[in-house]
């Protein structure tokens, strides 16, 4: 009997390979490490602000490895779950910055190539960002729009997580967006070039459709390969397919109108950034289904020479909301520093959103503007931005109301790992707000 | 007749050399590998330690130095040096695996004398260069010697440099990929010319040559291992040359039992005045450490021990610190069989201090390199 089993085992065994097959360049070889048992963490007893599905009072969020596993009241916790009591506190999805500078990346002017080859998971900005509850951010290498002044060309962009200490799961989308600001700031030649790229991209899409049709009808030539876009129009093809967003810096009404011409002509997913006079034309922006990003506290005086409305308005967020425009709010300084306790940088994203509430915006939309809508603008809302089963376990625990200036972030989780604990922070553990 | 005389003399010199022995007695010996010996004896024969211990029988007629009260310590090993080279920084991202540090070395450089009188008796000299910078030399700072006499290994290790950017990572990845292909094709069919020297990157991947990898930030360490981990069938002997902030990656490095060379410096917790001891943090995490002087100047050599002592004062275990000056760097360079400790059979490179070497009052009294006294404090400098 025993011999039979041995024989069977021998038969079932794979035949020994003579030579290892040549591997694809840089393809990681298949490793078979012993599978670790799942790691469960439960945040128990807090008010869970799911953002997309209301608030659950005294709920439990159960994390399994790097994902949100279950949400509920009085959940049965699997054996070995790390239980964290957050009674009386609020559990929110981690905040998301639609634009960050020098976060997770050294601030340099050199060509670093891809963001994923340059991110520094030990960068001090990440520790600080975590202390502000930031868990994901859109970053650009180089400096991005406006850094070199108008016409400066931003480097490659990506959405990264504040996964301190590990490259694993740090970059979640690259490229994340391309800049078409030249359409607004540039001259006729720039606009001609952009239009040409889109024309070529459309031509390519024709070819691709033709190929698919003939494939469906089985009319392909022998060994006919599917068409491939030229590198110069690769991103434009993605834009036309809706797989990528375009960012267009447009502050005043004339720039906004110009940007909307482009959006209308090519029907692309567009993010209008640095918006100031959007409040003067919310319906137009809404009809183009364009997203907006702006700083609520930007001050711009109206131009008395203009017949139309101009300048900044604290009501911009509320007015855009009424017209159905989706937007994300960015702070005055899109970076992090310990000098930002007054609430002017990415450490205090909710404070900037609170000013939108002061201008008439409802709290729910204000919360969305720094979580789920910000995620949507970055193209990562299927992963982050709300507390839902199956989404990434990126969470913050707050000591109080998110929009109260006295509220501190107490815990921050990224990919299911507790990466910030205020009680142990060398920078913030000593701070206690007055009540 | 004169020809015969030369022959006889030559034979006499040749025969005498292995007999050229001496003993140093009543020493406190910090052997590094076998603990401390009180009132011990070092017996040197030729260029090697013949016997080390408490009860060493000294053959009659052996020159004997009574060094009562003095402390013997192995010669320092500096694994990351550019000593004796004309300092040119390597540029570009093109791999240059065939460049030799040997070619950059000037044997008449005054720096070698400064090294001897500071107790640095073995150097790993790195070539300048980019991602795959070239081949390092391992040498003794001998006096009035030809370059070839100074060499322990003319080519002994590979220098790599890691920066977190796409071009550097691609250059490194492609070099490793090419080496992997060579190794795989050689498995199928042996090379047509078996005596042809394999490329340095191939030798590194096979583990024949150590690699010293320069990193600029803690993040570079993760990017380097990301590339290395895509070649899991190879286990190269890698040592990182890292900045103080490498302590941030202590857990990651400890898990990998990594080897690391640091400058003996304390750091600050970012944006605070709180002290961090990178060496202590890394050592506690399980990283093997070597401590190298901050530069190749006399000042850096002479203050090195004080700086190492400061690390011990702030929490680095003393035995780890002593090993980080000697045995650990010897292992990183792959020469631990002949250097890094006071043991019978190893090269007789040792130092005599008038008290514990980590004491701020300690003076280096005598330096022996390959069994020869090369410096004595009593002599004018």
Description:
- The complex is a heterodimer of chains A (435) and B (381).
- Chain A is 26% helix and 20% strand.
- Chain A has 435 residues and is an alpha/beta fold.
- In chain A, strands 1, 2, 3, 4, 5, 15, 16 and 17 form an eight-stranded mixed sheet that branches. Chain A has a five-stranded parallel sheet with strand order 10-11-12-13-14, with helices on both faces.
- In chain A, helix 2 (124-131) links the parallel strand 6 (95-100) and strand 7 (134-140).
- The termini of chain A are far apart.
- The relative contact order of chain A is 0.15.
- Chain B has helices at residues 2-16, 111-118, 147-150, 166-188, 200-205, 218-228, 250-255, 278-284, 298-313, 318-324, 327-333, and strands spanning 21-30, 36-45, 48-53, 63-66, 71-74, 76-81, 120-125, 132-139, 151-162, 210-215, 237-241, 259-262, 267-268, 275-276, 288-291, 350-353, 364-369, 372-376.
- The longest helix of chain B has 23 residues, at 166-188.
- The interface between A and B is medium-sized, with 31 and 36 residues.
Question: Would you kindly provide a brief summary of this structure?
Answer:
Chain A is an alpha/beta fold. Chain A contains 11 helices and 17 strands.
Indicate the multimeric state. Answer: heterodimer
| Main β sheet profile of chain A | 8 strands, mixed
Q: Report on the biggest sheet of chain B.
A: 8 strands, mixed
Q: Give the overall form of chain B.
A: globular
SSE map:
The complex is a heterodimer of chains A (435) and B (381).
Chain A lengths: L1 H11 L27 E10 L5 E10 L2 E6 L9 E4 L4 E4 L1 E6 L23 H8 L2 E7 L16 E5 L9 E3 L3 E3 L2 H4 L2 H29 L17 H8 L3 E5 L3 H14 L3 E4 L8 H6 L3 E4 L21 H7 L4 E3 L19 H10 L4 H7 L2 H7 L16 E4 L10 E6 L2 E5 L14
Parallel strand pairs in A: 1-4, 1-5, 6-7, 10-11, 11-12, 12-13, 13-14
Antiparallel strand pairs in A: 1-2, 2-3, 5-15, 7-8, 8-9, 15-16, 16-17
Helix pairs in contact in A: 4-5, 9-10
Chain B lengths: L1 H15 L4 E10 L5 E10 L2 E6 L9 E4 L4 E4 L1 E6 L29 H8 L1 E6 L6 E8 L7 H4 E12 L3 H23 L11 H6 L4 E6 L2 H11 L8 E5 L8 H6 L3 E4 L4 E2 L6 E2 L1 H7 L3 E4 L6 H16 L4 H7 L2 H7 L16 E4 L10 E6 L2 E5 L5
Parallel strand pairs in B: 1-4, 1-5, 6-7, 9-10, 10-11, 11-12, 12-15
Antiparallel strand pairs in B: 1-2, 2-3, 5-16, 7-8, 8-9, 13-14, 16-17, 17-18
